[in-house]
């Protein structure tokens, strides 16, 4: 009994904390990094007053948000109003369960990992819709509608992109997908090369899924003030913030795992330690991808709503459907080598 | 406590949640709450399927129904402006009809269960486990080999339904103005601004 409790309850809970705490800490530092990077791109300093190089700015923000008053709008549906941030956060954190960090370093090595990720990302939209509805506010409802339509549309393109990956890898298991990308040619064995258009579409859909610039019509500060979370303040707002950034980092990790070889090294094995796969390679790749999020935000103007829909439905989905066929041909005729 | 017992407890817990939330779907006054109860029902059923090792079906249920169908449902219900007083008025009036429909359905279902119970069917071993594959892999293999034709026919019927729905709701209004993105992209500065060459002019001296 005690043994069972230890192995089936205590160890998984500790492992969950070992993933969750770094994720939350990374979100805090990522917000600081975002403000710094965007500052540099705007030829500003970014936060530099609190702590060395402004490093404690993130923690100051967290403390500020947590001690602020949480306001509930008049006639808001109180139960759903407080349920919504949790519904946004839970899937964002739960999705991390299947992310493999290194060979065998994964919390839940499930066979249907890619499907699980799709399920989690599609559940996350409830938080946004309910936040918009329960706030009893016009702007919030508009933001929620835009966001829901956008997330559903881009989920299709993203799902088709994932289908291409799993056709090539022949498995839904994320560890098996990384293993399928191993090979003597290093970087040219990874899936970004045979699936280049799909890789680009996956990444852009990921940006759209997380409602980030240039697809941030759901928040659109200049049109609908802040969209679905306009009525949220203090810690309730902080939870939405945490969910959004955790999702961004998750999408970055998944782009690295699905298309850029996960923990595999781009260099040949003969180069010593630098040629061996390790968790540091995964972190480096995910860092580069998460940097793209910030780069996009500082560079591109916001898409118009109808342009977003057109891009998703009329451009991305047809391309991904065609590429599913191409990927099938690649696999069937052996145009690409799978596995080392 | 053995793992089997734990599974049994989980099964009954998920089952109870599924039944309770299904009851809430039809008893709750607030329609948004009712839709959310339906979501909870789907979730509980998916959990039960996971317990039965039908992982693909469970996750597909969540992706398709919870992730897409119910979101659209919620969308529509949120946009409805329902007068709750009016809804309560109709309750007594429609109660007899509802009871009759419910009774007929109950009798039909009991008859079906009775007929099925006469032919005793024993379930074989889990085919996926027997083949030594994961549930998802086995399902894919079966669908694309043994059941390829029915699978493709089902896909075709769904596509026809999809196109029919689009055609039924597509109305060309004569007054709609459309933007052609191709034209918008191809536009050049000469279409918008005309640069005129003219001689410099001296400012005229103002009369004072």
TrEMBL record, chain A:
Keyword check for Oxidoreductase: yes
Reaction catalyzed: a quinone + NADH + 5 H(+)(in) = a quinol + NAD(+) + 4 H(+)(out)
A GO-annotated cellular component: plasma membrane
The keyword Repeat is annotated on this UniProt entry: no
Topology of this chain in the membrane: Multi-pass membrane protein
Cell location: Cell membrane; Membrane
Taxonomy, superkingdom: Bacteria
EC number, as in UniProt: 7.1.1.-
Pfam families the UniProt entry points to: NADHdh
GO terms (BP aspect): aerobic respiration
Transmembrane region(s): 9-30, 79-101, 113-135, 156-178, 190-208, 237-261, 273-295, 315-335
Top-level EC class as recorded in UniProt: translocase
A GO molecular function held by the record: NADH dehydrogenase activity
Keywords per UniProt: Cell membrane, Membrane, NAD, Oxidoreductase, Quinone, Translocase, Transmembrane, Transmembrane helix, Ubiquinone
Free-text function comment from the UniProt entry: NDH-1 shuttles electrons from NADH, via FMN and iron-sulfur (Fe-S) centers, to quinones in the respiratory chain. The immediate electron acceptor for the enzyme in this species is believed to be ubiquinone. Couples the redox reaction to proton translocation (for every two electrons transferred, four hydrogen ions are translocated across the cytoplasmic membrane), and thus conserves the redox energy in a proton gradient. This subunit may bind ubiquinone.
PANTHER family xrefs: NADH DEHYDROGENASE SUBUNIT 1, NADH-UBIQUINONE OXIDOREDUCTASE CHAIN 1
Subunit structure: NDH-1 is composed of 14 different subunits. Subunits NuoA, H, J, K, L, M, N constitute the membrane sector of the complex.
NCBIfam families, per the entry: PRK06076.1-2 (NF004741)
Family from the record: Belongs to the complex I subunit 1 family.
Protein's UniProt name: NADH-quinone oxidoreductase subunit H
Organism, scientific name: Oleiagrimonas citrea
From TrEMBL, chain B:
Keywords, in A-Z order: Cell membrane, Membrane, NAD, Oxidoreductase, Quinone, Transmembrane, Transmembrane helix
Compartments in which it is found: Cell membrane
Listed EC numbers: 7.1.1.-
Membrane-spanning segments: 6-28, 35-52, 58-82, 94-115, 147-170
Membrane-topology descriptor: Multi-pass membrane protein
Molecular function per GO: NADH dehydrogenase (ubiquinone) activity; oxidoreductase activity; quinone binding
Reaction it catalyzes: a quinone + NADH + 5 H(+)(in) = a quinol + NAD(+) + 4 H(+)(out)
Domain of life: Bacteria
Pfam families, per database record: Oxidored_q3
The protein's enzyme class: translocase
Entry annotated with the keyword NAD: yes
InterPro entries xrefs: NADH_UbQ/plastoQ_OxRdtase_su6 (IPR001457), Nuo/plastoQ_OxRdtase_6_NuoJ (IPR042106)
Any single GO CC term annotated in Swiss-Prot or TrEMBL for this entry: plasma membrane
Keyword Oxidoreductase assigned: yes
Function: NDH-1 shuttles electrons from NADH, via FMN and iron-sulfur (Fe-S) centers, to quinones in the respiratory chain. Couples the redox reaction to proton translocation (for every two electrons transferred, four hydrogen ions are translocated across the cytoplasmic membrane), and thus conserves the redox energy in a proton gradient.
Family, as annotated: Belongs to the complex I subunit 6 family.
Subunit structure, interactors included: Composed of 13 different subunits. Subunits NuoA, H, J, K, L, M, N constitute the membrane sector of the complex.
Protein name according to UniProt: NADH-quinone oxidoreductase subunit J
Protein species of origin: Oleiagrimonas citrea
